[in-house]
Amino acid sequence: MTRSTLPLCFNLVPAYKVIVAYGLAVLLQISAAQAASTHTIGQLQVTIKPLPGPDGKVATLEVCEVLTDGAPEDSAPLRFSAPISVIGIKSVAASVTDLTVSDSSGPVGLTQADDAGSASDGELYHHWQAERAMGSSVTIRYRVATQPIEDRGPPYGMKPAGRGVAGSGISFLVLPENATSATTTLAWDISALPPGSLGVVSDGPDGVTIPGPPSKVRDEWMLAGPAISYSSNTADPFHAYLLGDPPFDREAILRWSGQAYHALAASLRYLGTPKYALLFRTLDGPSFGTGTARSEGGSALINLGTAFYPGQTLAGIENTIFHEMTHQWTGHLAGDPSWFSEGLTVYRAAVLPCRAQLMSTADCAAWGINVWAERYYGSQGRNWSQAKIHEVNFGDETIRTVPYGRGMLYFALLNSEILAKSDGRRDLEDALYPLFIAMRNGQQPDQATFEAILGHELGDEAVTAFHEMVIDGTTTVVPPSDAFGPCLERVTVKLQPKGSERPVDGYEWRPRHCQ
Ligand SMILES: [Zn+2]
């Protein structure tokens, strides 16, 4: 069947404008069973229209999806799905209302079912199935409520921010489950948003067309509304967008973020200057300043608030921004152990902003080092094994984040040891450079790759020490006093683990006079 004119959803013109930032493509892996019953369709077109409520806040998204050149009429009925819940969002599928599926013969009835199991079994989905085979062009329409801003945590949920909306595709999209295509077009209809609004998605190397199967759009960060935008010039691969009114200079934080991106690219080198889309959303009320980067890189979404959280400063938010962008350069080892992906990211976000003179020594210590050192030294899980910590995962933040601080301190120690052994000629980044070249070239470095580098650089005893400190947790990591440079020194502090009567010894780093 040849491609016919695409049926359109809503009024796409004239108030229709999409800005697409570019990132890396990723292919979805589907099981053999899924593949066997999957229809190949011409294209999926998704259009999202944010609808403000009476108070001007976006309360609802109206979504229209069109599948063209669809399955033959004698094939299995089409199925659709949405997650029941995802990290920090209790109800994704349950927020969907007014779902209709139709073809040239009219609407079709739908049967519904949930995956069996519990949240601990991984991601569970709600499924809708058409009650009859459908024609070649299928239209799916539904409404989905935006998520309550009170739910904190990673910024996946699609939430109102300022007079717009931002979040992740996984938090609201109902997508074909047994129909796939090579590309999906993803478009905003911003006609109901204030004048001057724009729409952004994080990926899309060919305009608004996203390569990969429909589920790929679940991995997109999305933002629409009257946002400010920034890039240093027309050739700048870095683009930033900010919605709402945080309690600091909006243009200045976008400029700072651009400088941070270029400092990362220049310092870590092996990716060149990849295209990057950094999205900010300002939620009503104080925000922890959390963020999440796409696992495949190219984009991150940062949570801001209309006020600072008690004790929070702009430097804390800057550290979060630097951390999330650093993930692009750290990537992950096979199996994604957090001691590497988070530990090395926290280490780099502790030292690189100071080296690039983007933050003061005191702020690097406070937000880059000591926040994480306290989460390690002061946690009841500081001497737990990586495997035991992994079992807890999102069940207890004081345990889950131990590898962040433990990894950061371990990499600081490792850097000191490599510098000492080479009389200052080599450092941690020199040693790890081949691992990142392998990662960039599509290979999958794993823990054994890291241990081989470690053994080559510092000998077998360094591999043993790595296991004791990081994998088994039996030895507490204590980097030398000058591990974070000559302008910071280590001091002993008393910390109070959660649920424990007795304080424990820990360490933090404080500024000292230096040349
Ligand atoms: Zn992280």
What does this structure look like?
With 515 residues, the chain is of the alpha+beta class. It is built from 12 helices and 25 strands. The protein has helices spanning 32-36, 250-268, 314-330, 338-341, 343-355, 361-377, 386-392, 397-400, 402-421, 428-440, 447-458, 460-471, and strands spanning 19-20, 39-40, 43-52, 58-68, 79-83, 96-103, 106-107, 110-114, 125-130, 138-145, 159-161, 164-168, 175-176, 179-180, 183-188, 198-201, 209-211, 221-225, 228-230, 238-243, 276-287, 291-293, 299-308, 488-495, 504-511. The strands form 6 sheets. The protein has a 7-stranded mixed β-sheet with strand order 7-6-10-4-3-15-17, with no helix packed on it. Strand 3 (43-52) and strand 4 (58-68) form a beta hairpin. Helix 3 crosses helix 5 (343-355) and helix 5 (343-355) packs across helix 9 (402-421). The chain is globular and about 75 Å long. The chain binds zinc ion (ZN). Zinc ion (ZN) binds next to helix 3.
Strand content: 25-35%
Chain-averaged pLDDT: 87
Helical fraction: 25-40%
Total helices: the number is 12
Biggest sheet features = 7 strands, mixed
**Count of beta strands:** 25
Cα gyration radius (Å): 24 Å
| Low-pLDDT residue intervals, each spanning 5 or more residues | 1-36
The helix-and-strand class reads: alpha+beta
Distance N to C terminus: 73 Å
Ligand identities: zinc ion
Strands of the widest sheet, in order across it, are 7-6-10-4-3-15-17
Shape: globular
In short:
With 515 residues, the protein is α+β, with helices and mostly antiparallel strands. The protein has helices spanning 32-36, 250-268, 314-330, 338-341, 343-355, 361-377, 386-392, 397-400, 402-421, 428-440, 447-458, 460-471, and strands at 19-20, 39-40, 43-52, 58-68, 79-83, 96-103, 106-107, 110-114, 125-130, 138-145, 159-161, 164-168, 175-176, 179-180, 183-188, 198-201, 209-211, 221-225, 228-230, 238-243, 276-287, 291-293, 299-308, 488-495, 504-511.
